[in-house]
Amino acid sequence: MTRRRAVLGGVVVLGLGGVLAFAIVHEATVSRAAAPRPVPPGAPRPALTAAEEAYAAALWPIHSEVKVSALRMTFGGLSYKMKEIDRATLRARVEAARQTYHKAALRIRALQPPPSLEKVHAEYAEAVHLYEQSAAEMGKVFKDGRDDHLLAAYPLSREAGEKMLRAGDVLWPGEYVPN
Amino acid sequence: MSKRVRVRMFLALLAVVLPMGVTTTAPAQAPQYSVWLVESSRFMGVPFGAFMPDRAFVPGSTNPMNNINTVDLPVNIGVIKGGKDIVLYDSGWKQQDYLKMTGSAHWAPLPQQLAQLGIRPEQVTKIVIGHGHWDHAGQLSDFPNAILYVQREELRGIEWALNYPNPHIAAVNTSPGGCARTPACGYPPLTVNEIYGKVLVGKAVIVDGEMEIAPGLIIHPAFRAHTAGSQLLEVNTAIGKIVFGSDAYSDWEAIRDWMIANPQQTDTVQQFLAYEKCYKITGGYQNCVAAHEPLSYTDKYPLTKNSWVGPNGSRAAEVTLAPGERSRKP
Fold first, then answer.
1. Angstroms from A155 CA to nearest CA on chain B
2. What is the rounded CA–CA span in Å between residue A63 and residue A153?
3. What is the pLDDT of residues A16-50, one digit of tens each?
4. Which residue among A92, A96, A169, A176 is buried most deeply as judged by most CB within 10 Å?
C-alpha cells in the first residue's frame, strides 16, 4: 500500500513536472514568436517592388541632370561671390540650370509613379520646382545688380536639396556612401 | 689692460648679452588648446577591404591584417578650445534621411554633442573642414557665428570635375547604388549649398595653402591626399602638437603602418606625404587624429582612450586639456 502510494505520488510529480516543463517551453516559444524582432543597425531594408524599381530607373537620368545643374548653379554663385567670374558668366550658368530644371519638371510630370511612390514623386517634383524658383531669383541679380537676390535664392535651393535627399533615400538607397 | 684682454672681455660680454637679446625678441609661445573628439555617427559593417585595400578580408586567414571581415567606422569631429576660439575640425553630417541609406548608427545633432562639453553653437568661432564631402562638411548652418575655412583648391576640384567633358569623369553619380568614386562624388548639392551659404553671408575664408588661423592653430594643405583640396590642422597642446587630418588621415593604423585608407579620390602618394607631415610635426604617429579609425574611443588608439558614451550612443573623448581647463568627462 505504502509502496503503491509512493509510485502514484512519483507518477503525479513526474506528470506535474512534465506539464510545467511543457508550459515553460510553450510560453518561451510563443513569447519569442510574438515579440517584434529587433532590427540591428545597418540591416538591409525591403527591396523596392518591380513597379517602384521601374519608376526609380525612369527618374534616375532626370535626377542626374538636376543634381549636376544644382551643383553648377551653386558653384556659379560661389565663383561670383569669390569674384572669379563676372555677372554675365553667372547669368549664363544660372540660365542653363534654370532650363534644365524646367525640362526636368516637364519630364517628371510625364512619369506615372506607382501608388506607393506618389508622395515621393510629389516631393521630387517640388524639389525641382524650388530649384527653378531659386534660379529665377538668382536671375534678378542681372536686372537690378543687387546681390540680395542671391541671399533670397539660397533657402529655396537649400530646401530643394533637402527634398531631393528625402526622395533619394527611398528611391536610391546607397546613393551616397561613407566618404 | 692689454688690447687682447679688452677684446676678450668684450666678446665675453657679447656672449652674455646676445642670448638675452634673442630671448626677448623671440615670438611669444603659442597658447595650448584643449581638444575633444565627438562622433557624428558610425557607419556599421563596412567591408574592411573597401576601406583599406591592404587589409581585405581573407576567409580563414589568421593574419591580423586580413582576418577582419567588416568594421564600424566612426565619423570623428575635432573640438578645439583655447584663447578666444572654439574651433571645429570637420562638422560631420546632418541629413537624417541618410540614416537608413548608409547603415549608419548613433547619429546625434552636433549642437547636442557639443552641449555635453558645455559649448553652445553660437560660441563656435571657426570651422575648418578637412574636405567638403557630405559626412564631414554638414551642419554648417547650425553655427551662425562660425567662420568657415575651406581650401580654394577643394572648390576648384569639384567644379573642374563637374565641367569635364567626359561624362564618366564629370559624373556626380554614375549608377544607382553608388557614385563609383568619380571626382565630384560625395558632394551632394545640399552640402555644397551649405558651404555657399557661409560664403554668401561673409562667414567664409577661402584658403590658399598654409594659413595660421590663430596662434598655435595652423592649416596645412594636403592636396589630393583624399580630395583635391584636403587640409590638415596643426594644434598646439599640452601633450605636444596634434594634427587633425580628416580623411587624409582616415585610419590611424594606416598612418602607423604606412597603408592607404579610404581611397575615394585619393592620390596615394599625396596621402603618404600627408602622413609624413604628421610624423614631422608631431614626432610620430600617436598624435595624428584620424576621421574614421575603427579603434577610436578605445585603449588601442591611445589618444582617444579617455572616452565616454554621449547622445544616442555616440562616443566622445577628452584628448587633452589646456592648463586651467576643467574636464568635461562625465
1. 9
2. 21
3. 555 555 444 444 433 333 333 344 545 566 889 99
4. A176
Domain that holds residue A131: 50-171
Please tell me whether residue B263 adopts helix, strand or coil conformation: coil
What's the rounded Cα separation, in Å, for the pair B194 and A158? 8
ipTM: 0.75
pTM, entire model: 0.80
Which residues does chain A have within 8 Å of residue B102's beta carbon, measured at their own beta carbons?
A: 174, 176-178
B99 phi, psi to nearest 5 deg: -55, -40
The beta-strand segments (E) located in chain B are 34-47, 70-82, 85-89, 104-105, 126-128, 147-151, 204-207, 211-214, 217-221, 231-237, 240-244, 288-289, 307-309, 315-320
- Whether residue A45 is contained in a domain is answered as no
The DSSP bridge partners found for residue B207 are: B151
| Interface contact flag, A178 B46, Cβ < 8 Å | yes
Q: Are residues A85 and A108 in the same domain?
A: yes
A64–B173 CB contact, under 8 Å: yes
Among chain A residues, the shortest Cα distance to B264 is held by A179
Same domain, A24 and A86: no
- Tell whether A21 and A107 lie within a shared domain: no
Pair B137, B94: CB distance under 8 Å = no
Within chain B, where are the H helices?
3-25, 48-51, 98-101, 110-115, 152-162, 167-170, 189-200, 252-257, 268-282
CB B106 within 8 A of CB B46: no
What is the rounded CA–CA span in Å between residue B245 and residue B269?
Answer: 15
Q: ∠ at Cα B198 (B195, B200), nearest 5°? A: 110
How far is Cα B104 from Cα B106, in angstroms, rounded to an integer?
A: 7
Lookup: cell for B44 = 556599421
Which residues have CB under 8 Å from A36's CB, separation 6+?
none
DSSP designation for A37: P
A59 with A88, same domain?
A: yes
Question: Which pairing describes strands B204-207 and B211-214: parallel, antiparallel, or unpaired?
Answer: unpaired
Task: Kindly determine whether residue B247 and residue A179, on different chains, have CB atoms separated by under 8 Å.
Answer: yes
Instruction: Flag whether residue A158 sits within 8 Å of chain B, measured between CB atoms.
Output: yes
A154 touches chain B (CB under 8 A): yes
Burial of A26 (0-12, 13-18, 19+ CB in 10 A): exposed
Q: What is the pLDDT of residues B112-122, one digit of tens each?
A: 999 999 999 99
